[in-house]
Write a structure and sequence with these properties.
Largest sheet: 22 strands, antiparallel, barrel
CATH superfamily: TonB-dependent receptor, beta-barrel domain
Strand content: over 45%
CATH topology: Maltoporin, Chain A
Number of domains: 1
Radius of gyration: 24 Å
Distance between the termini: 55 Å
CATH architecture: Beta Barrel
Shape: globular
Helix content: under 10%
Number of strands: 34
């Protein structure tokens, strides 16, 4: 074992988790979808899973989904400035393009970079989020190495409901959203949810003085979004529906001292139509056609060459059968995905590729024993990849469970890594991962404690090298499969409730390492964590949060160090009446200056206040 944690550090971490509180307990009846691609109680899930509820999101006062995810265990972030700038999310030390992101089951990512455009995802459109840690390629195919984050937009149910929110904060940050939702009920119930929102901020300069691209101007952003979900109960066991999400982001960034308005425009669109049928009493069938689009435009200077455009379109056809065998579930899946890229640059990138996949999984419970197993085969231009996983859980008592799992995964080469002129190589292969982990969880409904150890070994890592080994051009760079990496770590989380005070805490001790060079992976720390506390008295709830991280390196050579940091946030909510509530949030109360990326600025002390209306 190459991962080393000193005994004092481990005991300190365990004590922190055990002393930590239970501010947002997972209800025992919580239903999750992502871990197995089918709804099931969280209590029956073997994979380490976190849910972020609508209530938690509304109380968070987070400026973006990236800020919200940073407060979860096992997740680190990097960002080139404010909330409208380019961002990365790392799950268990995996690269941003080594984790899969779904919106209502629809895959989103740029086919040229392989990563989701986090800045374009509207927080105001989100109902809840599920985060599943560890490889899930045997269920979802490419890119699910570090984990899967699934975002769920708002869905209608019950009597007609109207909710609305408006807020204002530092840097002239303005936010507003509204949702109308409900269901007609009856034999042919029609459910609906329609949401719209807008965020706008003057923000701050994305870069710091001394950076080669520094400009003292503010780099603001303007984001608009709309989403909807519609479902019709045709007959018992038969349903048809449609859903969509549209988000448009206009943001500024720095490219030197020029007065030119350096800016970018991005749009994210997802849409799906689906049908559900119960042809047999024990068989549930899902057929879905889905489409996602990631469009990006940049104006880096006033010349014609300063304009660039890259569009990604993905279409997906899924046929899924869940076959119940007693209390067990056998799932059989076929998936066809087509990716298309269009740019105003090199024609080498203007092409499409298709992936055809077959998968099967089995989930069983026998008394105190839980078991799941899955296999999948993906066929595409980069070849065929077989992945598999197996997990086992044992309930030592009604409150204590031990788990163990093993899974393989892969990341498909991006269009840039395959086809970009003078850089890509069409012979590049997928990156591969092999993960083993063990865990233990204790939950008595008031107190909770969990610990997980994971060992994820990656091979055929695609890295940029100079000089390029397969070209005669001197000093040229290219990308090819050469490196190995190890993502190894321990995650400890705890929660409790003491005298009406809710406490939660988590800490990650990890060693994300490039085994070829021995260096730590770029922008990854060896320790990071969160602590939160809140207390309610009458209509008032007040809380505090601490987010902390150790040092990181901004480059693969580990020459440019980013110092560790700790941020303290305060917030309060007040229920004015049954339908009205107010929120006040003070982030980074110490006005801490810290770095998420070298020479890029981060938010200082910021205030935000808002009022929410909800009619049910």
């Amino acid at each position: 074992m190459t991962f080393r944690i000193s005994r004092p550090a481990a005991l300190t971490s365990l004590a922190l988790a055990m002393a930590a509180c239970y501010a947002h307990a997972e209800p025992t009846d919580t239903i999750v979808v992502t871990a197995t691609r089918t709804p099931q109680p969280l209590a029956n899930v073997i994979s380490d899973t976190v849910t972020i509820s609508a209530e938690q999101i509304s109380e968070s006062g987070a400026g973006s989904i990236v800020d919200l995810l940073q407060r979860q265990r096992g997740i680190e972030i990097a960002r080139n400035g404010g909330a409208g700038t380019a961002s990365s999310v790392y799950i268990r030390g995996a690269n941003s393009n080594q984790s899969l992101v779904l919106v209502d089951g629809v895959r989103i990512a740029s086919s040229t970079t392989g990563a989701a455009n986090w800045s374009a995802i509207p927080l105001t459109a989100i109902d809840h989020i599920e985060v599943v840690y560890g490889p899930l390629s045997s269920l979802y195919g490419a890119d699910a190495i570090g984990g899967v984050i699934q975002i769920f937009t708002k869905k209608g149910k019950g009597a007609p409901s109207v909710t609305a929110f408006a807020g204002y904060g530092s840097d002239k940050t303005r936010e507003a959203d509204a949702t109308l939702s409900g269901a007609t009920g009856g034999e042919h119930s029609f459910s609906y949810a329609i949401s719209a929102g807008k965020e706008k901020s003057d923000s701050f300069s994305a870069t710091r003085p001394g950076a080669s691209n520094y400009n003292a101007d503010r780099d603001g952003y303007d984001k608009e979004n709309a989403s909807g979900q519609f479902g019709l109960q045709i007959a018992p066991g038969y349903e048809a529906g449609a859903l969509f999400l549209h988000s448009k982001l206009e943001s500024q960034y720095d490219n030197g001292a020029s007065a030119y308005d350096v800016r970018s425009k991005a749009s994210l669109d997802t849409a799906a139509v689906y049908g559900k049928a119960k042809f047999l009493p024990n068989v549930d069938t899902l057929v879905q056609y889905a489409e996602s689009r990631d469009k990006g435009q940049n104006w880096s200077n006033a010349t014609a060459s300063g304009y660039s455009r890259i569009d990604t379109r993905q279409t997906d056809i899924t046929l899924q059968n869940d076959i119940r065998i007693g209390e067990d579930v056998l799932q059989v899946l076929y998936d066809h995905r087509k990716e298309e890229v269009s740019t105003n640059g090199s024609n080498d990138l203007n092409r499409d590729r298709s992936t055809n996949s077959w998968a099967a999984s089995y989930n069983a419970r026998r008394g105190a024993n839980l078991l799941n197993a899955a296999i999948r085969r993906d066929n595409s231009v980069y070849g065929s990849k077989n992945t598999g996983s197996v997990g086992y859980g044992y309930d030592l008592t009604s409150q204590l469970r031990a788990t163990a799992s093993y899974g393989t995964s892969f990341r498909a080469p991006t269009y840039n890594e395959l086809y970009y002129p003078g850089y890509g190589n069409a012979a590049n292969k997928p990156e591969q991962g092999k993960n083993a982990e063990i865990g233990i969880r204790w939950d008595d409904g008031v107190n909770a404690l969990s610990a997980s150890y994971y060992h994820n070994k990656l091979t055929d890592m695609l890295v940029s090298v100079t000089p390029c080994p397969y070209t005669s051009v001197p000093k040229s760079s290219c990308v090819y499969n050469v490196n190995k990496a190890l993502l190894e770590g321990v995650t400890i989380a705890g929660a409790t409730k003491l005298a009406g005070i809710n406490l939660t805490a988590s800490i990650d001790l990890q060693d994300p390492k490039d085994e070829t060079t021995g260096n730590r992976l770029q922008r990854r720390s060896k320790k990071h964590g969160n602590v939160s506390v809140d207390y309610s008295i009458g209509a008032l709830t007040a809380g505090a949060e601490l987010t902390f991280s150790g040092d990181r390196f901004d480059d693969a050579a580990n020459k440019n160090r980013l110092g560790g940091y700790g941020l303290v946030n305060l917030y309060a909510t007040y229920a004015i009446s049954r339908d009205w509530s107010a929120l006040v949030r003070w982030n980074n109360i110490g006005d801490k200056q810290y770095d998420l990326a070298r020479n890029y600025a981060t938010p200082g002390s910021k205030l935000f206040a808002g009022i929410r209306y909800g009619y049910k």
